[in-house]
Each structure stands twice: as C-alpha cells, then as structure tokens.
Design a protein that fits this description.
heterodimer, A: alpha/beta, Rossmann fold, 6-stranded mixed sheet, 4-stranded antiparallel sheet, 9 helices, about 25% strand, B: mainly alpha, 3 strands, elongated
C-alpha cells in the first residue's frame, strides 16, 4: 500500500533521507521510531508530496506520488501532531469542509456519526472548535480520516501531548482502522504505544532505517533495549543498514 | 468542490468578529456618501433648473431695446450635473457651472464649487465612487491577505493540501468566497442606495441611465476582481501573513494615491496648460490683428464688394439689409476661428493631459477606473467640453438671430430714412432665441473615448489572475 524505494531527500548539504526502503501493507500499523531529525517527518512529507524527493520513489497503492499527486492524496489520510482546524467553524463544519475537499460528501447525520465514532461528546459537535482541547481536535482529525475512507494513513506523532486516556482512545481508533484494512504509517516517540498498537516497528537514525521489528516477536523491554542500542551506537552501526528483524 | 471552499471562506469571514466592524464601517461610509451625494446632487439640480428658467425669463423680459444690445445683455447656460453625479462628482467641483453667453465674446464657465469650500474640501468629496475606489480595495485586502498565508501559518494549509484538492480549485473557491463577502457588503449598500434614489429621487436625465449603471457596476466589479486576485496571489506567494499585508498595502497606496498624483504631474509637465494671463492676452491681440493678420475693420472693407454681391447690391444704398448689422455679424464671424484656435489650444492641453493620464493608467488600475467612472457618471472633462461647445453654438445662434433681425428691420437706415423705432426689439423678437438646453453627446461617444480604459482594466484583471494562478501553482506547505 505504502512503499518507499531508495527514497532520498537532502536539504542543502544535509541528507535528511539516505535511501529509504520500506513497505506498509494493508492491515499494518507501522510505527517509525527515531530521534528528532532522523527523517520520520521527511518520509511522511514525501508520501504527501509536500516536498520533492531527490531520488527513489514513494508510491501509494502502486501510484507514484510525484506523478499523480492529487490521486495519491485522495487515497491517503494525514493526521499531524497538531490537527489544525478552523476555529470559527464547528466540528461538523470542519469535518464537512475537509471531506468535501477530499471529494466526499455525506448527510449531516452521517457526519455526526463519524464524530460519535471517534468519541467526540455530542454537545461539542456544534460548538466552534476554537474552544476545543488538543484531544478533541485530534478526534476530529481522526473523524476526517475516517470520512475520507482512506486506504493508507500517515500519522505524525498524533498522540504527542495527549493525556493517557485520550492517547488510549486514539489507539483504539487506529486498531479499528487497521481491522478495516488500512495501511497505517505512524511516526512516534512512544515506545510503549508502538509495541502495544503497532504491528511492525521501524527504527530510523540519521536518515536511514536501521532496524525493523515485528511487535509480536518482541517484548516491551526488547523494544526499548534495541532502540537504545541503536541510539547509542556510533555512525558505523548505521552504515550496516537494516535487516535484523 | 469550489462551492464548498467558497462557502467555508464565506462563513469563516462572516463569523470573524473583525468582519462585523469592517463591514459596519464600510456600509456606514458608503451609505453616508451616497446619501450626501444624493442630497448635494438634488440640491444642485434644483438650483440649476431654477437658474436656467430664470435666465430664460430674464432674456425674454429684458425690456424693449436694440436687438444687438439684447445680445450684449446675454444669457446664461447652467450645466446640469451628470446623470450619476450623486455617485461620482468627477471634476464638477473644479469645473465651472455657469457660462455667460454674450455678443462678441466666448467665455469660460464660472462658478467652481471648490472655490466656495474650506481647505478641508481639498481632500475631495466623500463620494460613493471614492469609497469604492479607495476603500473597497482595502476591504478586499483585509478580508483576503490571510487566505493562503494565514492558513500556512496556522497549519491548516498542510491538512487542506493533504486532502487531494488542486491548488487552482482552492484559488477559485477562495476568490468566490471572499468576493461574495465583498459583494454582500458593497452590493447591499449600492442596492439600498439605488432603491432609495429611485423611490424618492427626481427624474434624472434619461441619458441611457440603465446602460450607464450597468457599465459602471461592471467596471467596479472588474476593479474589485483585480484587487481580489492580486490579494490572493500575494497571499499565496508571501512567506507569512504580515509580509502579504505589507506588500498589498504598499500596492494599494501606490495605486490609490501615488500613481494618480504622479500621473497628473507627469501629464501637466508633458502637455502644459497655457498660463491664463498670457493666453487671454494672446487671444485678444489675435482678435485685434485678425485671424489671418488682417484686422476686422480692414477685412470688412476689403471684402465689402463680395459681401454686397451676396445680396445682389453694388453699394451700401442698394443693400437690402442694414450694413451696421452686417458688419456686426461679420466681425462676430471673423472671431470664430480665433476663438477656436485659442480655446482649442487650451482644450487640447487638457484633453492631452487626460489621455496621457489614461495611458499612464496601465501602471495602476485605479487610474483607468477613475476615468471610466467619471465618464459614465457624466462628470468628466469630455462632458464639460460638450457643455462649453453647446453654449458656444447657442451663443453664435443667438447673436446671428438678433443681428439678422436688426439687419432686416433696419435696412432703411442705409439710406438715412426710417425711424428709430425699428431698432426696438421686444419680447416677441427675443423669443426667436429658444431657451438653452444641454444635450450631452451621449453614451456611445463616451464609450468610444474610453475603450482604452476598459481594455486597461481587462488587462489588469488578466494579469492579476495570471499572477494568482502562477502563485498558487508554486504554493508550498514547506520549504523544499
């Protein structure tokens, strides 16, 4: 569903991504771990065609994102760290607007249903979102992704700053989307959540994917240990590339 | 899709607290300006009609006298305000309103309203046209400068562009939404003003009023569209909202204030207006010298044989008309080419200035619009010139009629017979000269003269649109 092949990106002299190869299949929740600047957000931006790759390809359901940017975006849903909404519009109006931008339209009742499914309180639906907490905004973000009926989701630290309950609810929603067959790529710092929710884990360092794990085969403790090993290892470790999973 | 974007822009703007203030102030100013313009216009038209009727009555009741003396008593032409003067007063404040028409002399229109105003009047009238020319662009800029730049700053642009919407669709949607808000504010005021006028107003001159209003509306829509797409172009191009606002306000000040002022100065420098004193002295001495260098008295003597021959006469005694009246009329006619040359020179300088200003208008859309607006309102220089021409034609006819009457009625004076009573003209004789009525050249002539300004507005709109399309095409959510 989501596939990166030898994907490269530089900013000036800095190589942000040094030939990334990865695949996320439908029903996968692929969690990208790594320090800030490891290339996680760059990867997501490349899939969204917000930036142009310097080499390699990124495809969504087999379509190259640089060749068919609008078509691939229609297949994607994107939830950033901070879901930004229009403060003067209500949750329902925001959801309707973004859905229409994505080429979908539903009845008001269906929109309410999406918002109910992500757990937004009934009374909040018709309130202007400038009064919303971060958790509530993220829920609207998920509702937008649900309504878009996306085949693949790109999540950039979507639970950062959420309280544990909200974070847990968010993970529940991801599991539902996963069971519907969506391919989910999530950048995160939350090792616990990655092991708990994810099906696979990729560890990035300095623009390379240095390790891939299947969450079914490792414990929480393993994940943390492997992660820290990679972080502490010198550059030479990363040169060996991926493949220990 | 575009409709959804437009609807979202519209609701977002309308729900913003700042909108209520902006819209309220704009609406208040526009309604005030229209009401004040209308009040001024109807008061002026009342005075104009009353004065014209009065001067016509005075002409008829000037008392029994020598008919040529009647032409010296003269008659006034009062300029009617243009059909849409309440909206755009144009040059009316600076052009004369009354023109004295008398024997032997072509005069200027006098009575410039600006000379009766205090220094505050220098800032110009608060007219509907001024508000739409200067404040409507400002309104568009305020409503639109964040259209893209604000969404980029707040982060919604990332999400919007992740939805798979094309940049062009975003542009059209935003243009429709913001345009709709502007139309709502401006359009409502204009419709309210127009309704009030049609319900209570006196019948305006019927100079194709409907066509004028339509073309006027079209010009202002084009003008608004230019600022709308420029605003969107800059908003998409600028890195942040503050930069967008600064660039746009800069352009607004340039287009609304600097360019018009510069255009006037440049046009005056290139086509200078003759100095009045010298111009007047030149004309008077040219009259004395005669148009071709033969003074009128000499010329009349030289031409007398041919002139008499026209009447089939060999000498004064055989003339069927009074030679004194003949001379008066000939002298009058000798002056025609002198007036035409000197007034023409003055007029050409104004016309050339205006045409050059129109041409300079390609650098700022406010210039061609202003020119068009005045022309459609009937308050421009062309119409003033038409008025002066009409007054001069009327004057020539008036003088010709009384001189002809004098010539025929006093023919016996040539042989020294006949009584003085034939010199007396009374009301019935003065009634040969019909009351002055001004019919402007009409809309078609105006349009022909201003086609260039329409084209300039169209070009501006095309350029603004092109710029906006280019700008959104390279719209990026993050630096590459």
């Amino acid at each position: 569903m989501l596939q990166a092949t030898d994907l490269r990106k530089s900013y000036g002299d800095t190589e942000a991504l040094k030939g990334l190869d990865m695949t996320v299949e439908g029903g996968d929740i692929y969690c990208l771990l790594g320090a800030n600047g490891a290339g996680k957000t760059t990867t997501i931006s490349l899939f969204l065609n917000f930036i142009q790759p310097d080499g390699g390809t990124a495809t969504v359901c087999g379509l190259d994102v640089t060749e068919q940017p609008l078509e691939t975006k229609k297949l994607l849903a994107y939830i950033p760290e901070q879901v930004m909404l229009y403060g003067n519009l209500t949750a329902l109006e925001n959801l309707r607007y973004f859905s229409q931008l994505g080429g979908h339209d539903y009845s008001p009742e269906e929109y309410r249903d999406f918002l109910r499914r992500v757990g937004l309180e009934e009374e909040a639906v018709d309130r202007r979102v400038k009064t919303y907490s971060k958790g509530m905004r993220q829920k609207v973000g998920v509702a937008i992704a649900l309504a878009k009926q996306a085949r693949a989701l790109l999540l950039d630290e979507p639970t950062a700053g959420l309280d544990p309950k909200a974070s847990n609810e968010f993970s529940e929603l991801l599991l539902k989307l996963k069971s519907d067959g969506a391919a989910i790529l999530m950048a995160t710092h939350d090792l616990f959540r990655a092991k708990e929710t994810g099906t696979r884990i990729g560890i990035m360092k300095e623009g390379r994917l240095v390790d891939e794990l299947s969450t079914g085969e490792v414990t929480h403790a393993d994940v943390e240990k492997i992660y820290l090993q990679h972080m502490h290892a010198g550059g030479h470790y990363a040169q060996d590339g991926a493949g220990s999973a | 899709m575009i409709a959804s974007i437009a609807r979202k822009e519209f609701s977002e703007i309308v729900r913003d607290g700042r909108f209520k203030w902006t819209a309220g102030i704009m609406a208040l100013l526009l309604l005030t300006a229209l009401a004040a313009g209308y009040q001024k216009y109807s008061a002026y038209m009342d005075i104009q009609r009353m004065s014209q009727d009065q001067t016509n009555a005075q002409w008829l009741n000037q008392g029994d006298k020598n008919p040529h003396a009647g032409a010296h008593y003269g008659n006034y032409a009062f300029k009617p305000a243009g059909p849409l003067a309440f909206f755009d007063n144009g040059i009316n404040n600076y052009a004369g309103t009354a023109l004295f028409m008398e024997a032997h002399k072509q005069n200027f229109a006098i009575g410039r309203p600006a000379t009766d105003q205090s220094s505050i009047g220098r800032f110009g009238d608060l007219s509907g046209a001024m508000i739409l020319q200067l404040l409507m662009p400002l309104l568009i800029i305020f409503l639109g400068f964040t259209a893209f730049s604000g969404e980029r700053e707040s982060g919604t642009l990332r999400q919007v562009l992740s939805m798979g919407v094309s940049n062009r669709q975003l542009l059209w949607g935003k243009a429709l939404g913001i345009g709709g808000v502007v139309l709502l504010i401006v359009g409502l005021c204009v419709v309210a003003g127009g309704l009030a006028l049609s319900l209570t107003g006196p019948s305006t001159e019927s100079e194709s009023l409907g066509a004028r209003v339509t073309l006027m509306a079209l010009s202002y829509v084009l003008y608004g569209g230019i600022f709308l797409f420029l605003t969107l172009a800059v908003s998409a191009w600028a890195r942040n909202a503050r930069t967008a606002l600064m660039v746009l306000i800069g352009f607004w000040a340039f287009a609304g204030f600097l360019a018009p002022k510069a255009a006037v100065e440049i046009s005056k420098a290139i086509h200078p207006t003759p100095a009045f004193g010298k111009w007047m002295a030149d004309m008077r001495s040219h009259q004395m010298r005669g148009f071709d260098g033969v003074p009128p008295f000499v010329r009349f003597e030289q031409e007398s044989r041919e002139i008499f021959a026209e009447y089939g006469a060999e000498s004064i005694a055989e003339l069927p008309v009074y030679v004194g009246a003949l001379r008066l009329q000939k002298f009058e006619e000798y002056d025609f080419p002198v007036f035409e040359q000197h007034y023409g020179q003055l007029r050409d300088s104004y016309t050339n200035q205006r045409r050059l200003q129109d041409r300079i208008g390609i650098v700022a859309p406010t210039l061609p619009l202003r020119s068009l607006s005045m022309a459609l309102a009937g308050t421009d220089l062309i119409r003033h010139v038409n008025f002066a021409d009409a007054a001069e034609a009327y004057r020539r006819d008036m003088v010709l009629k009384v001189n002809n009457y004098l010539g025929e009625a006093a023919a016996s004076l040539n042989t020294g017979y006949g009584g003085g009573n034939v010199l007396i003209a009374d009301e019935a004789i003065f009634a040969m000269v019909p009351p002055f009525r001004f019919d402007s050249r009409g809309l078609q002539a105006t349009l022909a003269e201003h086609a260039g300004n329409f084209i300039a507005l169209m070009l501006w709109l095309a350029a603004a649109l092109g710029l906006a399309l280019w700008s959104v095409q390279r719209l990026k959510v993050e630096e590459d």
